[in-house]
Design a protein that fits this description.
It is elongated, with a radius of gyration of 29 Å. α2 runs parallel beside α9 (199-217) and α19 packs across α24 (606-615). 43% of the residues lie in helices and 11% in strands. The protein has three domains: 11-284, no CATH class; 293-429, Leucine Aminopeptidase, subunit E, domain 1 (3-Layer(aba) Sandwich), CATH 3.40.220; 434-557, Rossmann fold. The strands form three sheets. It has a seven-stranded mixed sheet with strand order 8-7-6-9-10-11-16, with helices on one face. A six-stranded mixed sheet has the order 5-4-1-3-2-13, sandwiched between helices. It has 628 residues and is α/β, with parallel strands linked by helices. The model has no long low-confidence stretch (mean pLDDT 93). It is a multi-pass membrane protein. Residues 450-620 form the Very-long-chain aldehyde decarbonylase CER1-like C-terminal domain. This is Protein eceriferum 3. It comes from Nicotiana attenuata (Coyote tobacco).
């Protein structure tokens, strides 16, 4: 049985909870048709303040997830996983609750709605009330909520978040947020009732309160230790992220709201607080742990560029799809593209741990279309080379290249870098061996004929050579006789007859297994017979046009279940699923292989790499889907 006031009244409404802001909007709109607009003005202030509070938390969340800025300042090194993100999904419930509480207070005390814009005396009064009432009240309440009953039935929800994040500050029960609303409201009501209230003071106090709450939960140390060396008394007046993190990791200490002075007075100060803060601050200038494996990705397009944890954490935790709310943000994405093109270098985007090994995703600051601009090729290769050399310098074991970063026309599938730097310690991997394996293992054993586009590409060649040894007839779509014959000669003599050159899509009108390595139009898809299945290794994926056919997704594998700290989806992949070239690098790292995997795919290693992937717990992902 749930404890009283432990759940939210609107918890079953989902996104429809935002309709509760409707009366505020209606009041503001209705005020246009009446003379007395004092109440409408108050409702407008409530809406503006709620928006600013949400924006404050979002900014802190974005900053916290900018690993390229905060990675060396992080206090708890683990990542935020999907479970925590889901648990904190409705972190903003308290904003709505406090808006309703503020409205109730105004109706009970009508004089509160008629306040001046600014009153300097109110700043002193509200500060005194905060220190004298809010700080000790919160300290006592917080300490009480760590008692056996209150903690297990209420406060444990807040502490269930293993990694403090700005949104964690809002992750609490209904009762706790009511009390927090009281802690915030007492100085505001007090200053107003004493005649020193003002609109500016209310805005300022609430936003500073939220700022400090986010600061304490951001999980990276931003306050320099030199501040406390220069002004020792400040460490009793202002807590730090390290200080509050200790409360989450060593429950029973550091209960204060913002001022450690009350932990000193209450004898609940963690003795490690200052030393740990100094250590974290000093070490922020040093490089953190070296990753064991790096996946070198790139941006796909303007909309998917927004699918990153430092934009919207919840959005990045689900497979990417174009949403309407992204449209107003496209100018921001365009601006970011220009800035990255001119000034940026490869940067850290996400990370996770697998069996104690640190895996990171770095991003080459280039968008997909730029890879097809002839004048941009040299600059892109320079960026990729820069990332490889940095990984080599740091001591990374394996770096795997994502789709366009290993384009054959761009750098020969990575051979350019390996040949240019023969003494690389980091292993450069294109991951296409496992990509080929994933595609091939999806093809049923009883298939006798396939149609292959992109047939002379790196992957197309490997797929054709592998299938012909299984006595599968491969219709290779290509206009180049020379390239076809070169591939055909690589096959054992007794299997060369299974490789057939075709030049038109009509040749596959009776073939139900299409392997697409080159983008095909809806018109070209029409040549496939009813019931055909489209396997694919083309970027971007083909548009599913035929309702009487099925379509496969890009080759992918599910990471092992013991992956830790994974909280973002890789492009359109499901949670916990990565592209096969990413998975290929993971397998290369876990196996400890010492060779580079660049250039042409070694067909004889396809089964070996597949078995190694399965051995380490990676699993194939069913990619069959049908459109309605």
């Amino acid at each position: 049985m749930e404890a009283p006031l432990s759940s939210w009244p609107w918890q079953n409404l989902g996104s429809f909870k935002y309709l509760l802001y409707g009366p505020f909007v209606a009041k503001v709109m209705y005020s246009r048709y009446q003379e007395d607009s004092i109440w409408a003005t108050w409702c407008l202030h409530v809406l503006i303040l709620c928006s600013l509070r949400g924006f404050m938390y979002q900014l802190w969340s974005s900053f916290s997830n900018m690993l390229f800025l905060t990675r060396n300042r992080r206090i708890i090194k683990q990542g935020v996983d999907f479970k925590q993100i889901d648990n904190e999904w409705d972190w903003d419930n308290f904003v709505l609750l406090h808006a309703l509480m503020a409205t109730l207070a105004c109706y009970m005390l009508p004089n509160l709605v008629n306040l001046p814009i600014w009153d300097l005396s109110g700043l002193v009064v509200i500060t005194i009330l905060h220190i004298v009432i809010s700080e000790p009240l919160y300290y006592c309440l917080h300490k009480c909520f760590h008692g056996s009953y209150l903690f297990s039935h209420y406060h444990s929800l807040h502490h269930s978040s293993a990694i403090p994040q700005p949104f964690t500050a809002g992750h609490a029960t209904f009762l706790e947020q009511i009390l927090l609303g009281g802690v915030i409201g007492i100085p505001i009501l007090g200053s107003c009732l004493m005649g020193y209230g003002s609109v500016a003071i209310i805005y300022g106090y609430v936003l500073v309160f939220d700022f400090l709450r986010c600061l304490g939960h951001c999980n990276f140390e931003i306050i320099p230790h030199q501040l406390f060396l220069a002004f020792p008394f400040m460490k009793y007046l202002l807590y730090t992220p390290t200080y509050h993190n200790l409360h989450h990791t060593e429950i029973g200490t550091n209960y204060c709201l913002f001022m450690p002075l009350f932990d000193v007075l209450g004898n609940t100060l963690n003795p490690k607080s200052w030393d740990m803060h100094t250590k974290t601050s000093v070490e922020s200038g040093k490089n953190g742990r070296v990753p064991d494996f790096v996946f070198l990705a790139h941006v796909v397009d303007m909309t998917s560029a927004l699918h990153v944890p430092y934009m919207f954490r919840s959005f990045s935790s689900t497979p990417f799809s174009t949403q309407l709310f992204l449209i107003p943000l496209l100018p921001l994405s365009f601006l970011a593209m220009l800035v990255m093109w001119l000034y940026s270098k490869p940067f850290l985007n996400t990370f996770y741990y697998l069996r104690g090994y640190l895996h990171q995703t770095w991003v080459v600051p280039r968008f997909g279309f730029q890879y097809f601009l002839p004048f941009a090729a040299q600059g892109i290769n320079k960026q990729i080379e820069q990332a490889i050399l940095r990984a080599d310098r740091l001591g990374v074991k394996v770096i795997s290249l994502a789709a366009l970063n290993k384009n054959e026309a761009l750098n020969g599938g990575g051979t350019l870098f390996v040949n240019k730097h023969p003494n690389l310690r980091v292993r450069v991997v294109h991951g296409n061996t496992l990509t080929a394996a994933v595609i091939l293992k999806e093809i049923p054993n009883d298939i006798t004929e396939v149609f292959l586009t992109g047939a002379t590409s790196k992957l197309g060649r490997a797929i054709a050579l592998y299938l012909c040894t299984r006595q599968v007839r491969v219709l290779m779509l290509t206009s180049s006789t020379e390239r076809f014959q070169k591939i055909q000669k690589e096959a054992p003599a007794e299997y060369q007859k299974y490789l057939v050159k075709v030049t038109k899509y009509q040749a596959a009108k009776n073939c139900k297994t299409w392997i697409v390595g080159k983008w095909i139009t809806p018109r070209e898809q029409n040549f496939a017979p009813v019931g055909a299945h489209f396997h694919q290794f083309v970027v971007p994926p083909v548009l599913p046009f035929r309702s009487d056919c099925t379509y496969g997704d890009l080759a992918a594998m599910r990471l092992p279940l013991d992956v830790q700290g994974l909280g973002s989806c890789e492009y359109t992949m499901e949670r916990g699923v990565v592209h096969a070239c990413h998975a290929g690098g993971v397998v290369h790292s876990l196996e400890g292989w010492k060779h580079h995997e660049v250039g042409a795919i070694d067909v004889h290693r396809i089964d070996l790499v597949w078995e190694a992937a399965l051995k380490h717990g990676l699993k194939p992902v069913s990619s069959f889907r049908q459109i309605d």
